Each structure stands twice: as structure tokens, then as C-alpha cells.
Fold each of these.
Amino acid sequence: MTPFLLVTDLDNTLVGDDAALKELNQLLNRHRQEHGTKIVYATGRSLALYRVLTTEQQLLQPDALVAAVGTEIYLDVSDTPDKEWSEKLSQGWDRDLVVASAAHFADLVPQPETEQRPFKVSFFLTEAAAVEVLPRLESLLKDHGIDAKLIYSGGNDLDILPRNGDKGLAVQFLRQRWGIDATQTVVCGDSGNDISLFSVGEERGIIVGNARPELRLWYDINPAKHRYLAKAACAGGILEGLNYFGFLA
Ligand code: GLC
Ligand code: MG
């Protein structure tokens, strides 16, 4: 068996079905010990909220943590985000100007302080308001010369990120650093902020059975042999997909 790189979102992807998570953890742990498989968590959460989750759930220690929707990469158990990655993100990014532009929209409700990060400005936004606010905010940011990316997830969360940052680009960065091919990489997710994981390249993709409408819609428009829509939810869907791609054979 060959080692592979497993990249997975946490909320409602890896986490959500305790029994399936336990089974998957055992399998991955063994694969890591016997074949050198690597595990990366790619989450929207800040490091602080990731730590909270580790007290609530049985999670394996990852080889790297991609936090804050791909804008921070923590290698091993380091508390400091990777500097090379931060430098890439700072190009064309003006956080204060992003905050000032967003202040024009009453529908944007700021998320808690822990989730406001150097390269991520986050709000709650209802689906009803999003239809009108997103295009207007996008053009205002453009008028201000800000090269930003808007990511809307779960009909509730809006993240504004630098052009060079998202989960997918962070995974490319890690793959290059570790010298792992896209064909030996599996990415798993359930919502809008995971779309970049699937769209960035030829990585094997597992969309869990409980995926949110925005990701399902994207998948319907972008079907590919290297993407698999699982029937089972959460970790059960990951297990199903790993078998489908033959990574556990
Ligand atoms: C997580 C983060 C939040 C973000 C959301 C969607 O819930 O805590 O800040 O908006 O993921 O990416
Ligand atoms: Mg999720």
C-alpha cells in the first residue's frame, strides 16, 4: 500500500458521526504508522476554536493544521502560523480597508473576535440578504482596489480573504513542500469554504453525503472522475470515498 495525504474539513465532515469517526481514526492511525500516510485538517475555525473542538472530540493529532479558511498553516504542534504562507497572503491585502468597506452593509453582523484573523474578516449573513449584499460588496472592494475573495458557507457565514488564500491554495502549498502528488491526495468537505479544496487541481475529492446545497450545486456543475459524492454522512462518507478511490485496498 502507498502512503497518501488525507485533507479533511472538521465540522460536519470529519466530525458529526461519533461511531464512524472512531472507525476512521483507527484506520488512519494504522495507515499512518505502517505506510507514512499524512493527515491534515483544513478548517474554517481559528486555532482557538480548533483547540476547543479537540477537548470535545476524539481527534488524531494532524501533521498540519490549515486554520481560518486556509489563511493560517500550522505545522506539527507549532503555535505560530507558517511565515512563508503569511507572506504570500499579504500581497494585495489591506485588512483595515476591508473592514471599512464591509461597514457600509448593515446586514453584515461581525462574528466573534476569535474568528477575526489577520487574513480573514468574518461575518454572519442571512441567505435572504446575501443575494443582494455579496455582489455589491464585491464591487465596492474592487473599487477600493482590494484583491479579496468572498466565501459564503452554510447559508450563514461570510469570510473575506486575500486573493491568494483559501483552503485549496493552502493544500497546494503543503503538497509542494512535502512533495506529494495530487493523485495521492484526498480532500474531503461539506460546505462552501471547501469548494476550493475540490476546484484547485486534480486532488481526489470526497463530498460527504450531508453536504450543504452550495457544494452540491457546485458539484452538479463540475462533475469529474476524481470527485466522489458519498452516500454516507461525515466520517462514514470519508470511509466510503477512501474505499471508492482504492486508498485502503
Ligand atoms: C468556521 C469559522 C467561521 C467561518 C466558518 C465558515 O465556523 O469559525 O469564522 O466563517 O467556519 O468558513
Ligand atoms: Mg464543514
Amino acid sequence: MSKNFDVVVIGGGPGGYIAAIRAAQLGFNTACIDEWKNAAGGPAPGGTCTNVGCIPSKALLQSSEHFEHAAKHFGDHGISLDNLKMDVAKMVGRKDTVVKQNNDGILYLFKKNKVTFFHGRGSFGKAVEGGYEISVAGKTAETLTAKHVILATGSNARALPGAPFDEEKILSNDGALRIGAVPQKLGIIGAGVIGLEMGSVWRRLGADVTILEGLPTFLGAADEQIAKEAHKAFTKQGLKIEMGVNISEVKAEGEGVAIAYADAKGAAKSLVVDKLIVSIGRVPNTIGLNPEAVGLQLDERGAIVVDAECKTNLPGVWAVGDVVRGPMLAHKAEEEGVAVAERIAGQHGHVNFDTIPWVIYTSPEIAWVGQTEQALKAAGRAYKAGTFPFLANGRARALGDTTGMVKFLADATSDEILGVHIVGPMASELISEAVVAMEFKASAEDIARICHAHPSLSEATKEAALAVDKRTLNF
Ligand code: FAD
Ligand code: NAI
């Protein structure tokens, strides 16, 4: 006997679980299927983000930042510590607890919102009268039918050809979050978001970290001025970053991993490390979904093809998050999930791709929204720029963290904010003000005229907005 639902969501990551909750709030009889298992084989909804992504990485970043503060900065405050030690097993255990709290939180939210949860793999059976048949393969097998199906099956780490992940020595994000002891030498391929965040964690704990990046430009998606400032800070901290390399071979041998590559000038080089993290991007995941059974269209990258509203080529089938085009970010997946549930209910879902913030949780943090200066130049757009350094911000001085700046880019004529870029303390929190401002099409002057609390880091945002009109007050 099949169980009938209005909406079935396949995938319980940020795209899927949020879509299911919103659909249930809108009155639909909703099910969510997710196959992620915890160490005991039980359900662990939350997807990549909760289990091996956003949440555990931020837990390790926090622990390692505390350690670095204690080791290097407490002395400035008159605090001395003898015999400072890092218990890596405890740090990883704390991270696992944080993950479990989030898994349990999602199961609670499903109950609260009356979403029926199925633990197992969901796949298309066939199209049926007025909808689709979906099979669930878990501890028991179930057959569901639904008028609307939302696909939120996420993404997987991309491996280097010829160097599959063994999660012991050649690590994806999964293994990188489970390293049990500080490696003496850590190699990372890819100076993107994961490379920089995970590289920071293990460098802070004492590893000698080398990052090998294929492109000649560091953080090409970020504003050039901000990327330069960040590169300077990371290099000063001891991260070794080699740009423009060409990896020729990666071999796990003996106790370590040997990497052969050509440097930016084409010279043959080699690096031997204890562990290697490969963070060269992610690929959309439709493994096990059986898209052929219903003729679901995928593109050449394996992503589910959707239009601007997340509709697939099949009536009543939608797809959101990492498995479709667009940035692979949890908050983008969530916004799409909410919008799709609302569109199913006949409402106007809202996702503004122009105001999706990016954050890299290193120290200094990097955050931005909107266009970069190099993109505006390339587009021939007339703009004004204003920057304000944290060095001139009282709160940053009191915190003892004055690296970086806030940068505003505004239209030369209308003064509308076109982009805000931050490198420095709490950039992840500061960027929200810029997102709100851009969503409401604010001008730089609007921010400059708003009262900001003193002393606060947010005053640097106000001052950068003032700088657009060349009238900073504290610099
Ligand atoms: P996922 O989170 O991947 O969830 C998909 C779920 O579907 C999984 O649970 C999977 O098991 C399940 N599934 C797949 N196929 C099936 C099936 N057939 N049946 C049943 N279940 C299935 N983003 C940020 O915004 N901020 C960050 O700080 C951040 N940090 C990150 C750190 C790391 C190390 C990594 C790897 C990623 C990070 N991301 C971050 C990206 C973020 O994790 C993803 O963008 C986000 O998880 C995508 O959500 P999703 O719902 O599309 O997919
Ligand atoms: P990424 O796209 O951020 O970076 C990958 C890097 O690897 C790029 O700089 C690329 O040029 C480089 N690269 C690709 N192939 C290479 C090769 N063969 N040799 C050397 N370098 C190569 O991807 P990453 O770091 O794997 O992260 C995946 C995604 O996960 C991110 O794009 C982001 O969407 C998400 N994420 C988000 C975070 C956040 O929001 N704070 C944190 C971590 C991940």
C-alpha cells in the first residue's frame, strides 16, 4: 500500500528540510526522505551542512581559534598560561556533539511541524495519475505517492582523477573533519573556501600547511583588494599558498602522500605530506535518485536542470540547493526551499541571487555581497569606492583585532550600493547590514546617515559608506 502525500521532499539538508517545514506550514501533507546515517546507523538529517560541512567546520574553527588566542594573544591581555595543550580527541568530540544537537533539532522540527520523516534512500519509481511514485529503501521499504516532489539531494566532494578519497590519507571534507591528531605536514589542493577554512584549523593547532592552487589568482571570486589583504594576513600567519600549480600525480605511499606538480613557472616540484585534503569543488549528487525512470533532465555537470523558479522539466517536480545551478551555499539552498514551497501553494517565492552573501570563516573573516570592483570595471559601470580600515575602529582596537577593512562600491550617479566587501573581525555578522541595505536598494548615503552603536565594529561599515563621499570622520 502506498502512502499518499501532497509534497515529498527527497534530501534532508538545508534545502530539503527547510522546504519540508515550509510546505507543512502552508498546510500540505508533507514527507521528507533523508538517507544520512550517524555512527550508530540512526537518522542524521541536516545533510552535508550539518554533518560534514558548515556546522562541524565552524565548531573546529572556533576551538582552534580559542587555542590560537590562548597561545598567542592572551599574553597581551595580561593572562598567562602554563603548559597549554590541545586535546584533539576532545575537540573532535565536541564537534560531534554540536552536530548531533543539530540533527536532533531537525527531527524535533519535523515533529513540531508534522512533517513525516523517512530514513532511507528515496528514488523515483514512475509517474502515476496526478503525481509520482517514490520508493524509500531504508530499514524497511516504503512506497509513497505525491503530487509535488522537491529534490534536494545536494552535492559530493570532487576527487582528483587517479586519487580517490580513502579518508585516511587522501581526505575529502568528510575525512578533513575527522583528523584525530595534528598532522605534522598537511597538504591541501585547492585554495578555495574549504582549503582556507580547514587549512586555518590545522595551522592554528601546529600543522605545517601547504595549499596548492591551480589558478594564478587568489580567491578570484572575491574583490581583488580584499583578496590581497586576506592573502597577506594568511601568509603572515604561516599558511603556505602556492598559486598557478599543475598537479601531475598524487600517490598515497607509506605513512604519507606524495604530490608531484609543476609550479607557476612550469618547474617540476614535489611535496610529501602526512595527510592531503582535496578541496577542488563539489559535484551535484543524483546518485540513487533514478532520474531515468521519469525522464528528469540533468545537465553535462550532472546538475538537475531548473528554471529561475526551480521547476524541472517534469510537471510538479522541483529541485533546490547544491543539486541545481548557482552557488553551493546553505542559505541559498534554504531560500530556494522556502520559495518552492510557497510557489506550490500559489504564492510568489522570493530568491534574489544578487544579494546572496558569501562568507569565509577564516581569521580574518572574509564576507561580501554584490559586485566586485573588478567586475564593475569590466562591465564599464561608473562607480565610487570607499574603504575604512579596522585599524581606525575603536572596538577593533579594544578587541585586539585590527586586520582588514570594509569596502563600499556605489553607483557613481545614483549612489545605490552595488557591492560591500569586508575582510576583518566578525565580517560574517557585519555583512548582514549590507545585505539588508542592498535588498532595499539603499544608497551609501543611507548607511552613512544611520546611527550605529559606539563602540562597535559596525561603525566601520558606516565609515566606509561615508568614505564613498570622501568624508570619513575617524580616518
Ligand atoms: P545537502 O546538505 O548536501 O543535503 C542533501 C541531503 O540529501 C543529504 O543528507 C543526503 O544524504 C540526502 N540525499 C541525497 N540523495 C538522497 C536520496 N536519493 N534519498 C534520500 N536522501 C538523499 N555553506 C554555507 O552557506 N556556509 C558554510 O559555512 C558552509 N560551510 C561548508 C563547509 C564544508 C566543509 C562543506 C563541504 C560545505 C559547506 N557549505 C557551507 C556548503 C553547504 O554545506 C551546502 O551548500 C549545503 O549543505 C547544500 O544544501 P542541500 O540541501 O542542497 O544539500
Ligand atoms: P571552491 O570552489 O571554493 O574552491 C576550489 C578551489 O580549487 C578553486 O580555487 C579552484 O581553482 C581550485 N582547483 C580546482 N581544481 C584544481 C586542481 N586540479 N588543482 C589545484 N587547484 C584546483 O571549492 P571547495 O573549497 O571545495 O568548496 C566547495 C564549495 O563548498 C564552495 O564552493 C562553497 O560553495 C561551499 N563551502 C562554503 C563555505 C562557506 O560558505 N563558508 C565553506 C566551505 C565550503
Amino acid sequence: MTKNTPISIEFFPPQTNEGAEKLRSARAKLAELQPEFFSVTFGAGGSTQDRTFETVFEIQQEGHEAAPHLSCIGSTRSNIRLILERYRKAGIHRIVALRGDLPSGVVDPGELRYANELVAFIREETGDQFHIEVAAYPEYHPQARSPEADLLAFQRKVEAGANSAITQYFYNLDAYLHFRDACAALGVHVPIVPGIMPIVSFSKLARFSDACGAEIPRWMRRKLESFGDDTDSIRAFGLEVVTRLCEQLIAAGAPGLHFYSMNQAGPTTEIVRRLGLG
Ligand code: FAD
């Protein structure tokens, strides 16, 4: 196993002052792992977006590289232009460019309908100012017409100017390897960094996985269900399974690991330490 595998860590913007304080303390611990960057998710709605900006700028002021996520659905070119300008002025160098999802009840998709259009717009507006990451789906995006169509949509994002990709989380190693090989066969050679979701609660994980189309393999689901409310056993099993997945990914040449920290330091730190990366 190489100790050179870079890691990155994702946060969501806290909605309360207490959440912001907790995140500061989690971030201080996670910074010890020397991640390449901390990314911050971006949601629909004004106040949520303000919290993304606040979190991004705070991370940057602490001296870490901050990578804001930016989604285009429901937005306008002029609004996105303003956000890009704000990030450019602040010296941000990396953006995770996404389509996003329309909040329920909202029907207007906005001016940019898919992430490849956002990537093209960022390049048109800002040239090479930003390293652009896009999303990839080894188990395919839930709305994709077909696996083939999803792969081609991914290719379009890269052709529009994305430098690298971060995947939706998955627990099936073969799905990642197959997706990576399919991209290579299409001539798409950007780094595809696996997204890693530590397991801390079965009910939360099951909810997320249903929503985003990430499969919890049957054997894992059965084991996790069998632990009931025994959170210690859930955590111990989760650490074992996810660390093993990361080991296999590194052995298979994954270019990095991106951790969905859920704003908690413990699980990510433990996995990274077990891997000997931190
Ligand atoms: P796209 O790449 O545009 O794809 C969306 C769907 O449209 C796919 O099914 C694709 O096959 C299809 N498609 C693409 N082009 C076309 C076309 N021309 N015609 C027909 N179909 C097409 N969401 C947030 O709201 N905020 C975040 O911060 C956030 N961060 C994320 C980070 C990562 C690493 C990942 C993996 C996901 C994240 N998401 C986030 C979720 C993401 O926004 C959703 O999965 C969303 O539904 C799709 O976004 P995308 O950028 O992958 O879209």
C-alpha cells in the first residue's frame, strides 16, 4: 500500500452556530490528516448558500485549501457569474461543479440544465482559474436513461473542461473498477477519485443510499440490521468494511480518496489511520 494516496474531505455547511463550532473542532482534528483540500457542499436556497460561502472562506482563512461545490439547477448564468467572481477574488482554486437537484415543489430548472453546461460556462467565464471536479457514478445516476447514457454524460463533463472527478459513494469495488475501465475505453482519462462514506448509523445510511442510488450490498445490510441499536457494533463493522474497501481501492490504483465526513472527525480519522495514510 502506498502512503502517498492523497485524501480530501467533504463537509456540509452547518445551519446553526453550535454546528459551526462543532465543525471547527472536527476540522482542526481532520487537518492533522493533511488532506489536499476540504470541500463544502452547496444547496438550493439563499441562506444555505450563504453558509457555504461562510464555511469556505473560514477554511481558507485557516490556511487550508477550500473547494466549494457549486450547483447550477434552478440558477441563472448571472447568478453563477457572481459566485465565480466572489471565489476568484478570494483566491479559490478548485470548484466541484454539479447540476444539483431541484427542491421539491420547484419546477424551473434554470438556465443551465446539466453539469456539463456548468463546466463549459465556468471555463468560458474564468479560463483556467479553477481546477474543476465533477461527480461520477460507478453505480450510475438514479435518473440516467441507461448506463451508457450516463457514461456519455460523464464524458461530456470531461470534454467541457473538468480536470477530475469524485464518485458517489459505493461499497461495491467492482462497480468502481468497471466504471473506471469503461471511461478509459472511451478515452476519458481524468483521475476518478472514489467517494468514501464511513458508516456510523444504519438508518441514516439506508436513507441516503435510497435517495442517491448507492447500493448497500445485501450482506452488509443484513449485518447492519442485525445490530439494531448497538451503535458500537455498527461502528466497528463499518470501520472494518470501509477500511478494507479503501485498501482494495488503493491497491487497485485509485488516485485518491474523498471522505464524506458528515462533519465528524472520528470515523474518517480512524479509517485514514488504519490505512497508514495519516
Ligand atoms: P449531471 O452530470 O448533469 O447528470 C445528472 C443526470 O442527467 C444523470 O442522470 C445524467 O445521466 C443525465 N444527463 C446528463 N446530461 C444529459 C442530457 N444532455 N440529456 C439527458 N440526460 C442527461 N448535490 C447538491 O445539491 N449539492 C452538492 O454540494 C452536491 N455535491 C455532490 C458531490 C459529489 C461528489 C457527488 C457525487 C454528488 C453531489 N451532489 C450534490 C449530488 C448531485 O447534485 C446529484 O446527484 C444530481 O442529481 C446530479 O448532479 P450531476 O452534477 O452529477 O449532474
Amino acid sequence: MPNFESILSTIAQEVSNETDKGRVASYIPELSCVDPNKFGISILDKDGTTYAMGDSKEKFSIQSISKVLALSMAYSLLDERIWERVGVEPSGDPFNHLSLLEMENGVPRNPLINAGAIVVSDILISHLKHPKTDFLEYVRGIAGDNSIDYDESVAVSERKTGFRNYAAANLIKSFDNLKNDVETVLDFYFHCCSLSMSCEQLVKVFYIFMNRGNCLQNNNYLDLSKVKRINAIMLTCGFYDEAGEFAFEVGLPGKSGVGGGIVALLPNEFCVVTWSPGLNEKGNSKLGMMALEKLTTMTGLSIF
Ligand code: DON
């Protein structure tokens, strides 16, 4: 294994010199309050050793990163039947785009765009007795950390300005691909997005996708085939219309969120999370992408 400690300190130093840190998301008002100068990075290797730098213990809004966790839970419940409701092709469009949804009869391209995650939310609501509590317990269980929680103020803030998500949910409903009512589905979706976690907590959750479905406590959450497929979806769809660029620059399956977090992993080797709130024009963390490019270039470790 490379010397992650010294590599992370070099990366943190280099990104701190960047003058353009991107722009903090403001379309969800609560997110705009975050300090753009925050930067954290954390690596968890296959042996369970953590390496961290900067604001890696500070919690942030994981936003779309939660889409992978909702998918993981719904996939476990439905097995391959899930793909009758949502596709597995990259969209090449921004995360909140609507036109493909109309053209493709309300079946979202993939589970990592907003429309896809709204369908996954609908599936979870239909199958769980207490959807918000059960999903939270699922995430806490994987991390072995009961302090993980929703941020109600972020969920409320997003509901007030979630016009495009309401549009997507209504369009999906009109094609009969939403079984529950729009308000219930979006309340669940907004809560998932509002999950608040630090880099050090998130690496522990995404450890299951790096470690053949097994968490740090060695409980199994996913079989190998599902892990393979979820990682493939992260690689091809995890960065929306920048998935090609992320594969090209970083070369790892991963997922971003508009809270400025990015998770990425090299199967059987390590999982990494970066947090820098400033986003590029595609809605992905600017310094996070830069840091991950440096990480895979300096270590020579990527899936390619
Ligand atoms: O639905 C939304 O717009 C947000 N809750 C999540 C978007 C997001 O994180 C996109 N990722 N880069």
C-alpha cells in the first residue's frame, strides 16, 4: 500500500493553494450557509485503517450520495425486479433533467439521477414499515454508528424549493411508475438527501461496496453480483453529465452530492471520501475532483 499519510498531506496542501474553489450550491437555501473554505478527505483501506486530513470529522449534507444507499437497500429487497422500474444507462444530462423522462415513459435512465432516486424512494416506501426510520437504521447499521441522522432543516429547506423534483415525481406518477403519493415519496427522498455525515463516517458506509458487500463489523449487506452492478452504475452514472470526465480523470466508481461530498472506491483496496462545498458548473465538488485525480495519479491506483 502507498504511504497514504504523506500523499494526503501533499494533496491537502496543493488544493489549499487553489484560488477558485467553485460555488456553494444555493438552490437549496440551507446549503448556501456552508463555509466554502472547508476541505476534508478520509481514506479507509481494506484492513480497516483510516487516514484523514483537514475537516474530515465535520458533518455535511450528503445529498445525492444517499442515492447509492437507497439503491442498495431497494436492490436487496427486490433483486433484479428493480430494473423493471428504473434503467441502468447513463443519462448524459444534469441530475435534475426532465426531458428524457417524458420521452422514455416515466422510467428514469438510472437510479442515481433525481428521477431514478424518486422511483427508488417509492419502492422503499412500499416495502418498509417505517421508511424513514428503517432507512436511517440501515445506514447506521452499516457504519456501526448510531449518531448518524437526518438534518431536518435541510429537508425542510429542500421541500420549499424542490420544484423540479415535484415536476419529476408528477411526471413519473402520470406514467404510473410511482405507487405512493407524490408528497409522501418526496418527503422520504428529501430526508435521504438531508443525511448529515462526516468523511470519516461516510467511508465506513461505502466500505461495503469496496469490501464485497461486507461492512467493517463483517456483516454482509450485498452479494457479489449486486456489489459489481452498483459499482458499475456509480462508474457510469455517478457524476451525471460529468461521469466520463470523472472516469477519465480519476478512474474509480464514485458518487457526488451537491453538499460538496464525493465518495469513490477501488474494489478490494480502499474507499475515499472528499468534502469541499464549492461545486463546478456540473454540480460536482471542484476541489474534490481535483484531489481524487491527484490521489489516483500519485498512487497509480485506479480500476484502469
Ligand atoms: O434533489 C436534489 O436536487 C438534491 N437533493 C440532490 C442533488 C445532488 O446532490 C446532485 N449531485 N451532485
